[in-house]
Every structure is written in structure tokens, then in C-alpha cells.
Design goal:
Layout lengths: L2 H33 L3 E3 L1 H14 L4 H13 L10 H4 L1 H16 L3 H6 L7 H7 L2 H16 L1 H23 L18 H6 L6 H6 L15 H11 L3 E3 L8 H7 L2
Antiparallel strand pairs: 1-2
Helix pairs in contact: 1-2, 1-3, 1-9, 2-8, 5-9, 8-9
């Protein structure tokens, strides 16, 4: 095998690992734990989730949480930061990052939707500096894999992560199944790629549930990780059953 192909395969494998870690941190830490308080993480586990999300994405948790909570407050109506119903799914897929930045330009957003996540000493020194985290993460890949292979792995990871998360917001409100009466959809293939986030219709039906799979045939890798953490006392779920919204319950009785 040529040096180029070896480097490419190494970069692809490394990118797959890093993207999986980033998706796990996004769904378990940013989404289910912080945004919806569906579980509580042990401080030790929470610190590592913060560190990994900082190194792999550069995301500031309170910013992600604020945008997501606003999405739930105005789902697919005027005020939704990234609704494909209002903007078209292609627009959301291509410009998801820009839509997040546009929402964060509102100085009241954090105050209104993430006031329970004030900066602490770790944010002031490390986690509040998103570019530092990204550069450090890229640097680690370059040292571990070599300069060019590391850069290629970082490039592949960034595109895969951004595309997958955009797809949850875009395709996850346009294509797929709707077992409950909301505009979100279930896409099992997307759930495989995003540690469960593709089961988006289920999530909007029961947003405070730590489990996104509602049937035995649905696969939610993020829930497997939560169960593993719970088994060693590093996480505690808010409740183990599925607590659906009144609208979701009503849709099932029709």
C-alpha cells in the first residue's frame, strides 16, 4: 500500500474515532444532560465531557444549550433558530453553523435560555476559549499522526461532525417517520451516525427523557453510553421511563 493510501486510511480511522467521541459528548452532555436535564453526570464525568467537547468541536456549552432550548420553545414557528419548515431543509443543512451564530448575536439569548450555566473557573481558564480548544485538538492529532495526516483527520472530522449535526436539524424535520404528532422525524441511519440524535421525532415527543429509542427495534447508542455510565455511578437518569408531552400522548390515542 502506498504512503498516501496509508495516510488516508489512518486519517479516516482517526476522524471516525474523534467524530464518534464528539457526537457522544454532544448527545449525552450538551443535549440530554445540560439542555434537558434528563440525567445528572458525576462531576468527574462532566469534566471529561467538557474537555472532549472543547478539544473536538470548540463549542461553548451554554451557547449550544441556549440555541437548542430556543429551538424547543419555538419549534418550526417564527423564532426557531434553525427551522427547515421556515427556511427549507437545504438552507439549514448548508448554513447550520451560520444560523447558530446568527441566533447567538442576540445578547439576550444566553440570559434567557442558559442562565443556569454561568461561567466557572474552568471556563475562564480553558473551556471558554473555543479557538484554543480547537487548535489544541488539531495539534494533538498532528503530533499523534504526523502533521499532514493529522490535518487531514481534523478536516474530515470537522466536515463529518458539522454535516451530521446539521442533518439532525434539517433532514430531521423533513424526511423520515413521524410516529408522534410533531414536525420532527425519525431517521435510524442518522441515529447511527449521531449517537442516537436521528430519532428526533421521539425526542420532541419526550424531550426530558434520557432515552431516544422508544421501541426495541430502534437503536440509540447514546443511551447505551448513559447506561454504562449509570452502572458505575458516573451518571444518574432523571427517570427511566418515557415521559411524553400531552400532545404526543394525544396523538397516540387518535
Amino acid at each position: 500500500m502506498s504512503t498516501f493510501l496509508t495516510s488516508l486510511m489512518t486519517a479516516l480511522i482517526a476522524a471516525a474515532i474523534v467524530t464518534t467521541v464528539a457526537n457522544a459528548c454532544t448527545t449525552v452532555y450538551l443535549h440530554r444532560a445540560l439542555s434537558h436535564r434528563a440525567l445528572t453526570l458525576h462531576p468527574f464525568a462532566a469534566w471529561f465531557f467538557r474537555a472532549f467537547i472543547w478539544l473536538t468541536t470548540g463549542i461553548k456549552p451554554k451557547e449550544w444549550v441556549a440555541v437548542h432550548r430556543k429551538h424547543h420553545a419555538f419549534t418550526d414557528i417564527e423564532g426557531d433558530p434553525h427551522s427547515p419548515v421556515l427556511l427549507g431543509w437545504k438552507q439549514v443543512q448548508m448554513k447550520n453553523v451560520a444560523l447558530y451564530r446568527e441566533a447567538l448575536a442576540d445578547p439576550e439569548l444566553i440570559i434567557k435560555y442558559a442562565k443556569d450555566l454561568p461561567d466557572d473557573k474552568w471556563d475562564k481558564v480553558f473551556f471558554g476559549h473555543n479557538k484554543t480548544g480547537l487548535l489544541l485538538g488539531i495539534g494533538i492529532l498532528m503530533v499523534a499522526l504526523g502533521p499532514w495526516t493529522g490535518l487531514l483527520a481534523a478536516f474530515i472530522h470537522a466536515n463529518a461532525y458539522l454535516a451530521g449535526n446539521a442533518a439532525v436539524n434539517a433532514m430531521g424535520h423533513r424526511f423520515g417517520r413521524r410516529p408522534y404528532a410533531n414536525n420532527a422525524t425519525n431517521l435510524q441511519w442518522l441515529a447511527f451516525c449521531t449517537m442516537g440524535e436521528g430519532l428526533h421525532n421521539n425526542h420532541h415527543a419526550a424531550p426530558s427523557s434520557p432515552r431516544l429509542s422508544h421501541k426495541w427495534s430502534q437503536i440509540d447508542p447514546g443511551w447505551w453510553l448513559i447506561k454504562a455510565l449509570s452502572s458505575v455511578k458516573l451518571a444518574k437518569v432523571r427517570f427511566s421511563d418515557i415521559r411524553m408531552t400531552p400532545a404526543a400522548k394525544a396523538s397516540l390515542s387518535r
